[in-house]
Design the sequence.
């Protein structure tokens, strides 16, 4: 009795249908769709952050209310404690109140936590003055956040895997 052998042409039979047939297979479409969605999400997130950094106005704000902290549990690490509150700043002589994250840190003492009455530097959107973010004293830099780069990088890997699957092992 002859031993059972798997031939390459049996495994990659989709290749005989050409690249269109290969593209229709789930081995290409699923990673391609995931990768393009992640790339698009990372790019939109980056462009929105860039647009906010360009049009934002930096001003001083005063903490008027500190809300109780809450914990964000993580599966693969220690929890993060988020401190948020309400800040008040002036825009064209009018007082505006906005809610924002004052600090996020590991459990225990948090060095960057703001207290009632503290002065902070915030950046707000002149088109929607209630939309504010805590900013460094020089203003927002617009540099990509690590999570943006991670999302786009994983998207690139998925698109590369789909391209490799599409272009490799095709038979003439």
Sequence:
């Amino acid at each position: 009795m002859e031993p059972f052998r798997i031939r390459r042409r049996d495994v990659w039979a989709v290749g005989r249908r050409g690249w269109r047939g290969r593209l229709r297979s789930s081995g290409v479409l699923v990673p391609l769709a995931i990768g393009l969605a992640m790339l698009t999400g990372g790019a939109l997130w980056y462009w929105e952050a860039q647009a906010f950094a360009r049009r934002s106005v930096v001003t001083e704000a005063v903490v008027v209310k500190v809300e109780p902290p809450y914990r964000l549990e993580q599966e693969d690490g220690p929890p993060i404690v988020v401190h948020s509150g309400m800040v008040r700043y002036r825009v064209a002589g009018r007082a505006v109140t906005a809610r924002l994250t004052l600090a996020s840190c590991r459990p225990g003492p948090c060095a960057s936590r703001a207290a009632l009455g503290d002065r902070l530097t915030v950046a707000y959107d002149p088109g929607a003055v209630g939309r504010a973010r805590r900013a460094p004293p020089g203003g927002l830099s617009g540099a990509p956040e690590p999570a943006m780069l991670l999302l786009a990088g994983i998207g690139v890997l998925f698109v590369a895997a789909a391209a490799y699957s599409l272009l490799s092992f095709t038979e003439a």
